[in-house]
């Protein structure tokens, strides 16, 4: 293929991505109010309503744009990335849009629904028994000629944190007519670190007083790393919540744009997703439950200190991806997870406004 025909293919691919972005509406922002937290509004941005069912749709589009505009992606080239599922689903969807083969390097323990979703979109799943080896396997595919999208290495730079309809700009825009248009806190998890990096930078760029809290599974590498400012920190225990709770601190996680880090028990996160389902009528994945718990912890602290304001968080992906795992009672029992005490604690917290640790 000549240089001119290659450039034409890139231009056509960029046009397809622009058309897709234009067709995609912004995601909804829901408000909930709880009796135990008068004067504190909770907002939930439903990123699961993207065409590929998760907040990773934004990231996947950005990674493809980054690869195309940096001359890394060529016609017919296989695309590869390491992912626990949601990013892979979104990347497979965009690969199909561009007519490219796609390989997802995934931990073998990934929820079966996610594996099937990648395959349904025409992607191939390369399952790795040791989750710590997914990066190396993806790099191996790249040495054989594949374009490595490298979400973990490039997430914080592939997304334009100054605006261009990134998630932070979208949130602030949707709040502009609310009683408290500038939130007190925004809460998110950290997978690649790209979402927290984008939000934290945007808040500073816009000179907003909003603080950013990263909510993570107990023992996450990000918890230890942020508290000690140690980029070599590793997780002290595994988590059942996919997509966050990374075993090591990824390059895209920026310590200095995060104002607080919250630890959340796996059982609490699963129980919280069921509370969200009761209030919103839709089931979301475990990372959404982690975010909700982070919000409740912050709200309880605000209430205790007589503060009012608003808290915004993300609904990350659809719960139907976890029907054989997080939402299967036999699976939870096999993994020693009892959500009943947390369901009681959360019901009480929503009424009293007091945080009740399990």
Structure commentary:
It is a single chain. The protein has 358 residues and is of the alpha/beta class. The chain folds into two domains: 24-52 and 160-352, 3-Layer(aba) Sandwich (Rossmann fold); 56-156, Rossmann fold. It is 44% helix and 14% strand. The chain contains 13 helices and ten strands. It has helices at residues 3-23, 56-69, 86-98, 112-120, 134-143, 151-158, 167-174, 194-205, 221-228, 266-280, 286-304, 329-334, 340-352, and strands at residues 29-32, 40-46, 79-82, 102-107, 124-128, 147-148, 185-188, 211-217, 260-264, 309-315. The strands form two sheets. It has a six-stranded mixed beta sheet, sandwiched between helices. Strands 5-4-3-6 form a four-stranded parallel beta sheet, sandwiched between helices. The longest helix has 21 residues, at 3-23.
């Amino acid at each position: 293929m000549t240089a001119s025909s290659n450039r034409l293919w890139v231009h056509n691919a960029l046009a397809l991505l622009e058309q897709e972005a234009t067709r995609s509406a912004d995601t909804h922002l829901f408000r909930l109010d709880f009796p135990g937290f008068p004067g504190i509004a909770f907002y939930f941005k439903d990123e699961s309503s993207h065409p590929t069912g998760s907040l990773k749709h934004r990231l996947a589009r950005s990674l493809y744009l980054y690869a195309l505009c940096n001359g890394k992606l060529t016609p017919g080239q296989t695309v590869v990335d390491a992912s626990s599922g949601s990013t892979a689903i979104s990347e497979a969807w965009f690969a199909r849009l561009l007519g490219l083969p796609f390989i997802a390097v995934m931990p073998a323990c990934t929820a079966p629904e996610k594996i099937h979703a990648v395959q349904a979109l025409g992607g191939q799943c390369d399952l790795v028994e040791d989750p710590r080896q997914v990066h190396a396997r993806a790099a191996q595919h790249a040495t054989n000629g594949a374009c490595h999208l490298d979400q973990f290495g490039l997430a914080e730079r592939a997304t334009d944190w100054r605006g261009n309809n990134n998630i932070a700009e979208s949130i602030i825009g949707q709040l502009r007519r609310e009683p408290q248009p500038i939130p007190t806190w925004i809460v998110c998890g950290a997978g690649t670190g790209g979402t927290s990096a984008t939000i934290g930078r945007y808040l500073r760029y816009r000179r907003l007083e909003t603080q950013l809290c990263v909510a993570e599974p107990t023992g996450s590498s990000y918890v230890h790393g942020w508290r000690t400012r140690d980029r070599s920190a590793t997780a002290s225990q595994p988590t059942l919540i996919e997509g966050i709770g990374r075993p090591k601190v990824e390059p895209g996680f920026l310590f200095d744009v995060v104002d607080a880090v919250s630890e959340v028990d796996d059982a609490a996160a699963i129980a919280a997703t069921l509370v969200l389902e009761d209030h919103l009528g839709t089931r979301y994945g475990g990372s959404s439950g982690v975010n909700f718990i982070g919000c409740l912890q912050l709200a309880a602290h605000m209430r205790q200190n007589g503060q009012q304001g608003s808290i915004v968080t993300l609904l990350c992906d659809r719960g139907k991806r976890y029907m054989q795992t997080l939402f299967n009672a036999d699976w939870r029992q096999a993994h020693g997870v009892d959500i009943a005490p947390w369901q009681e604690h959360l019901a009480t917290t929503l009424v009293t406004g007091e945080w009740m640790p399990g």
